Amino acid sequence: MSTAATTDAWRESSTTLEGRSPEEILDWATARFSPRITMATAMGAEGCCLVAMIAKLGRPVRIFNLDTDYQFEETLETKARLEARYGIAIETVRAGRSKAEIEAEFGPDLWKRDTQLCCRIRKVEPLRETVAGYAAWISAIRRDQTPDRAQSATVEWDPKFGLVKVNPLLNWTWKDVRSYIHTNDVPYNPLHDRGYPSIGCWPCTKPVADGADPRSGRWNGEKTECGLHARR
Ligand code: SF4
């Protein structure tokens, strides 16, 4: 089936689900795709909400974290707290090459010289390998985060990785995320309370001032996406 035909095939589902709650969207997605459905999370607040919702649904979803070699300690601690709270395992997925092998080939601190290549080796390629063979993956993106993400559909064909992408939180705001976390006592990354609205690898993540673009602390403003959710 062509990419256009595959995209059309999911448009009706997406239209039906648009405006439904994240729990209803996840219920639909897991009923339809489990156990061939997976989710990557860097333990951002949005991902923590989805982990809580998926755990409540109880259907098998392979949840994994991409170990980039550069995650904050607070992120790893959040992972452990989510696992303990919900009795689930969040798998750690590493790049096909070790940090030493990457440094041997490209030199130290690749992120200082080429964030595109570094993200590709440490995030995009490992995700591609991990989702291969799955029917769908779940993302925690929100429409109000970037102009690119604003174009996303609740259910859409992801041509980059060759499977369906389900975006249950598209219509949520940061306020919705915070509200869900506090109402449901969901473990979350404490860096969010220290000026980090968006959290990735420590070399490429800075706190932002109140009122600034929440993603402006990523990659020193050089880019806004690591490549997992970029539509081009
Ligand atoms: S966010 Fe930075 S350190 Fe992490 S993979 Fe991308 S460039 Fe490398």
What key phrases describe this protein's structure?
11% strand; alpha/beta; Rossmann fold; binds iron/sulfur cluster; 9 helices; 6-stranded mixed β-sheet; single chain; 232 residues
What can you tell me about this protein's structure?
The chain has 9 helices and 6 strands, in the order ααβαβαβαααβαββα. The radius of gyration is 17 Å and the shape is globular. It has a 6-stranded mixed sheet, sandwiched between helices. It has one domain: Rossmann fold. It has 232 residues and is of the alpha/beta class. The chain binds iron/sulfur cluster. The site of iron/sulfur cluster (SF4) has 13 residues, from helix 7.
Quick recap of the structure?
The chain is α/β, with parallel strands linked by helices and 232 residues long.
The radius of gyration over CA amounts to 17 Å
Question: Which architecture would the CATH scheme give at its second level?
Answer: 3-Layer(aba) Sandwich
The N- and C-terminal alpha carbons lie at a distance of: 20 Å
| CATH topology value | Rossmann fold
Number of strands: 6
SSE string: HHEHEHEHHHEHEEH
For the record, the CATH class is: Alpha Beta
CATH superfamily: HUPs
